[in-house]
Amino acid sequence: MLRFVEETGSTNADMLVLAEQGGADGSWLRAGRQLGGKGRMGRAWESPDGNLYCSTLVRLQPTNPLPHTLALVAANAVHALVAPLCMGQARIKWPNDILIDGAKIAGILLERAGDAIVVGIGINVVGHPVGLDRPVTSLTAQGAADATAEALYERLAQLFSHWLSIWRAQGLDPIRTHWLLNAHPLGTPMRVIQPDGSEVEGAFDTLDRQGMLILRLANGQSRAIHAGDIILS
């Protein structure tokens, strides 16, 4: 079910409440504006009119892959949505961003409530923030002047359902394979700021079969990254 509200604090927060109230698997909510949109690690997500802010609810089943790998499902869906609309090259950046020629156009946030995962997705459609410490872009800036949040919302729900069905029926392997085809290339230099503030540098080696990023260090050793901010060099 696709729902829409003109304004709310956060679609993720609303869907977490719905999850606790027994909301159904496959429920969606889009807001025209968010007053308290949020990104990963507690960051604010700017929410001007015209961009896409939505969340969906996934009820976990006993045979499902690890819950955090739903971020890969969402990334595949968002990439498939925006890549054909952009002049630049769309790439997935672990764990939750879609970049166009290195500029962020979309973000993903997973939150859990009991047996439910709420997947929040924000896409810059008609505008993007300015004055940030990293490059950002929008579909309009990429030449997709006719794109609307309403139309993208419906298509995103279809694409997410497609990849979710594969995740549930076939496991993580096909999700991971497709993700790797559209992510930062193997060998990409990167710096990881870990949740405790420490940093580690290396090159992107692969994504393991649990969805963790594997970093190849300068000394040839590998490091599994479970969480962190990735800064591409």
What does this structure look like?
The chain has a seven-stranded mixed sheet with strand order 1-2-3-7-6-5-4, sandwiched between helices. A five-stranded antiparallel sheet has the order 11-10-9-8-12, with no helix packed on it. It has helices at residues 11-20, 70-82, 149-170, 173-181, and strands spanning 2-8, 28-34, 52-59, 90-93, 97-100, 103-113, 116-123, 189-193, 199-207, 213-216, 222-225, 229-232. It is α+β, with helices and mostly antiparallel strands and 233 residues long.
**In percent terms, what proportion of residues is strand?**
25-35%
Radius of gyration: 17 Å
Globally, the shape reads globular
- Contiguous helical run count: 4
Task: Give a nutshell description of this structure.
With 233 residues, this protein is of the alpha+beta class. 23% of the residues lie in helices and 32% in strands. The chain has helices at 11-20, 70-82, 149-170, 173-181, and strands at 2-8, 28-34, 52-59, 90-93, 97-100, 103-113, 116-123, 189-193, 199-207, 213-216, 222-225, 229-232.
